[in-house]
Amino acid sequence: MYNDEDLNQAVEAGIFTNDSVSQFKSHIASLKNTSLADEENFRLITGFNDVFVVIASGLLLASIGFLGFHISPMLGTAGVAIASWFLAEFFVVKRRMALPAIMLLLSFLGGVFATPLVNYQHPNEIGFVIAGIVTSIAAMLHWRRFRVPITVAAGVAAICGSIIAVVLASFPIAITWVNSMLLIAGLSIFGLAMYWDASDRKRQTRSSDVAFWLHLAAAPLIVHPIFSSLGVLQGIGGVSVSLMVVGLYVLLAMISIAVDRRAIMVSALVYVIYAFSTLLETYGMVSYSFAITGLCIGATLLLLSAFWQVSRRQVVKVLPTPVQMLLPEVHA
C-alpha cells in the first residue's frame, strides 16, 4: 500500500509527474464515489508486519524497563526512552512503518516523562511540571528527527499539561477552574490543528496527518468541559438538559462538518447517548433506553456519513469567504 507521502516522494524523484499523480488520485476517488480528502485518511498500518514489530518492540522495551528498574528506577525508564529512539532510527527512518512509529514515540515520551518522577514515591506538582517540560522538549527533538505526525499533538498536550500543573501548583484554589483550563487548552489545540489543516487544504501531505492527531487531542478537551458543566454524567437530567445536549451536539456537528473532521462528534457521542438513555429511563423505558438511543443516533450518523459531502457543501457555502479559504476544499 502507498500513501500520499510516498507518491509525493516519487514525484520528487522524477518517477511520476504531478499531473499523473493527481489523475490517479481523482480516479481512485471516482471509484469510491467520494473525495479522498473527505475520507479523512491517515496512515496507521500497512500489513501484519507492523503489528509483529509492535509486539516485538513492546516485549523488548518491557524487558529493558524491568531489568533496568531493578538496578535503578531512572535507569529503567531512561533505558526505555533510549531504546525507543534507536529502534525508531531503523523502523521509522529506514522502514517507514507507521504503527511502530506511533508506538515507539509513545514509549519514548513515556520513558522521558517518567524518568524525573520515578525516584519519588509521591511526586508533587513541581515534579510533574518538570516532567512535562522535559517531555515537550523531547517531543520537539523527536519531531525534528522522525517527523511522526502524532508527535506534534503529544508535545502540545505535554505543554498544556505542564501549564495546567504550574497553575494548580501556584494557586491550589484553581482546582475549581480545571474544566475552564481544559476548555482553553482544547480550543488552543483546535486552533493549531486548523493552522495545519489550512496549510494543506487538499490533504495530500504530512500536514494533514499532523492536523488529524491535533483534532483528536483537542476534541475531548473541548467536549468534556462543555457537557460536564451541564451535569450530564452527574445524573442531572430532564427534558431541558437533554434539549441543551442536542443543541450543543448539533452545533459541534456543524463545526465538524465545516472543518471536515469527525473527532469532535465522536468525543461528544458518549454524553448524548448517556443523556438520552437517562431521559428514557425516567419515563420507564429502563430495559430499552440504551438500545433505542443507539438505534436513533447510529442511524443518523450513518445517514450523515453517506451524505457527508452534500452536508459540507450546504454548511460551508453559508460561511464568509475568508473562512471558506481556510477550510479543506469542498468537492462536487
TrEMBL record:
Keywords annotated in UniProt: Membrane, Transmembrane, Transmembrane helix
Membrane-spanning ranges: 51-69, 75-92, 99-120, 126-143, 150-171, 177-198, 210-227, 233-251, 263-280, 286-308
Origin: domain of life: Bacteria
Protein's recorded name: DUF2157 domain-containing protein
